[in-house]
Amino acid sequence: MSAGASEPRGWGLATVLFVIGWELVLLGLAMLVPLVADLVEGNRDWRGFFAGAAATLFFGVLLILTNRRPAFALQLRSVFVLTSMSWVAIALFAALPLQLGVAELGLTDAVFETMSGITTTGSTVLIGLDTAPTGLLLWRALLQAMGGVGIIVMAIVFLPFLRVGGMQLFRTESSDRSEKLFPSTAAMVRRILAVYLLLVIACAIALRLCGLSLFDSVTHAFATISTGGFSTRDSSVAAFANPSAEWVIVLFMLMGGLPFLRLIALLQGRPHLFLRDSQIRLYVLVALAATSLLTLWLMIDGQRDGHAALRAAAFNAVSVMTTTGFATEDYIRWGEPAVALFLALTIVGGCTGSTAGGIKMFRFEILWTAAQLYLSGLFLPNRVARPRYAGKPLDNEIIIAVLSFVFFFIGSWGLLTVALGATGLDLVTAVSGAATALANVGPGLGETIGPVGNFASLPDVAKWLLIFAMLLGRLEFFTVLVLFHPAFWRR
Length: 491
Known about the structure:
Blueprint: H1 13-30, H2 32-41, H3 46-66, H4 76-94, H5 96-100, H6 107-118, H7 134-162, H8 181-209, H9 214-225, H10 243-256, H11 260-267, H12 271-275, H13 278-300, H14 306-321, H15 336-348, H16 361-379, E1 388-389, E2 392-393, H17 396-422, H18 427-438, H19 446-449, H20 460-474, H21 478-481
């Protein structure tokens, strides 16, 4: 990859389209999995997947053949364009089976569902999941699985190189020098895929041992490790009424929110890297604190006691905090203090380099460090101190990037709330809908889009706003917003 001053004229549109062509080919091949599942069960929904796969493979091959180049090179601007266009193209083509199959969704609902899946948000417009075709349910699970892997690769390889939102702090051997990106990326991606599949298999086996069917075990394992939250039931995990399965999902949701580089190091026999990571410690601390507070509240309020309170609090707190979005009950009815805590957990998120969304732990750490330094400077003006993170000095560029990210997150939250309100949504639905889309959580608050609700009844304009918000939050804001800057397109 070439970048910076050495960048030639133009920005490599042909290379971008070439890569997207291969992505569409892989997506089209993935559609064959639910197609076969429907054929085996005799569901006529296979026709939708056949038509979708044919169209996706056609356009994918067309892009590959018409944009072949003897030299493969991506420039800095190319990576920004490729990252955003990849998610948009996949969401659009992945929606074809939902439009052409038995679901017969319109364009808005189909794209909403697939964008929610590929960004691992988990918001849904589908009703009647309990009786939905196997292929449709499997396709939703596969979208989240593919999105989860893509998010990890993006966070570990591309975003540090692009210096987005302070992610340059996590530059690794695969992203610290642009000319080394592709050779070292292959080994990194293989390790990520291996750990990802290992977690999915372990989760599926554990759920199967808890009594879930093989299909439910596999689909919920995909949704859990990707922190996506698509279920095969309208009432989510509550439909199983299985305490053992709930604890298994809690454990694997927490693992999905951990940095995958640290999980790789742990499996390679380097536990010290895992144990010394400050964002992991903060992540566990916040999860324990939220669970404890909700448990105490449920017991004090007389709604639950003992293990029932702990299980309900742990499952739903971890689900929202890791941006998974599963639910075992309508926690909106737990009272205002609980609702306020859930709204706060919606924007917190997991660790960097995980499948979780939200602001993420390392940014809170950097904000706290910068605030402490500023505060001490008020009464010790002559003190010279340099902020540090994980034992390394923090550059002003990183602090500014983190502050900018939080500013854009909060600013987008406010603007999106106003825009959703203008479509006729009530305040609770607008505020929580904006938050859950930007943080890629899934359920919002209130009767309409709460943990037992659905996004189907929202106006189409509101759905398109949420589609854009899901993309914006998943790609860390700047990767998308930079495309709207006029200077970005100038030579």
